[in-house]
Amino acid sequence: MAWLQLTLECDGEAAEKLSGLLEQFGAVSISLSAASSDILVAEGILAPAGFWKRTRLSALLHEDTDLDILLVCLRNCVEPEQIHAHRIEAVADRDWVGEVQKAHGPLIFGERLCICPGWCEPPPQIPHLIMLDPGLAFGTGGHDTTAMCLEWLAQNDIADRIVVDYGCGSGVLALAAAALGARHVYAVDIDPQSVQAARDNTVRNRMQGTVTVAFPDEIKFPVADMIIANVLLGPLLRLAPEFAVMVVTGGALVLSGLLAVQVEECLAAYQTWFNMQAPWYRREWALLQGVRRSTAERK
To answer: Is 22 in contact with 11 (CB distance < 8 Å)?
Structure first.
C-alpha cells in the first residue's frame, strides 16, 4: 500500500486548526516541526504562541484521499495567507512502527542509569532502570537538554533528597531521581497531556509511593533539597524568586532548556540567591547548576 505525504508551511497560530482538519480527512499521522529558527518547547512547557512562529506540518494520508478537496478545505479553514507553501509526495509503505522502534534504543547515563523503551532488552549491568516509551509528552532522554539533566543526576548524590522536577513533561527526570534514591520527588507541569503521561509512566515504573505528579497549583511544595527544571528561558527567569524560596540553604539547582547564548541572562537572574557553577554545554544547548546561598552569604 502506498501513502501520500502532505507537507505544509504555515503560521503557528494556524497549525492547530489545520491539524484538526487533517485528522478529519483520515490522516494516520501528523507531525509538527520548526520552519523557522525560534524555539518552541523544552520538557513540557510551551512557548506563548503554542507553536513555532512558522511551523512545518507533515501529514501521512491514505493514497485515495481527494487532495483537491482537502487543499480547498485547508485554505478555507484558516486565512489564506497563513499557509505559505505545500508539497505532496508519494510514500512507499514501510514498517513505520519498526522504524520508530529502531530509532529509540536504551540510553545509559553515568554507567548506572538506563532509560529503556519497552521494546528493548535492558542492559543487565546497569543498576537503575526506567522503562519509558516515546509518547506525546516531551522527554525521552534523547534531547540534549534532557540528556544533560540525566547525566547530572547520574553523577551526583540524590539519595534521601527531596526533589522538585518543575516542568516534568513525561516525568523522566523525576523517575530518574527516584530510581537514584531520592526520598520523594514532586513532578509538576502546566500541560495536562504531560501530567497524564508522567502519571502513567510513574505507575508503569511502580514509583507511585515516591513520585507525586500534579499541576503546580495542586501542590504545597516542601522545602526541597534540589530543584531541577528543564524549561524555556522565559519561565526560568520568572521562576527564579520562587525557586529561591523553595530550596533549602545548601540545596542544589539544575536548570536546562537553555540555548548557549541565553546562559548569561539566566545566570544573572539566579546569582542573587545561588552560587552558580560552571555551565555544561552540549552542542547549542546549556545546563546551569548552582547551590543555594545562606542569608549571611547574600549580604
So the answer is: no
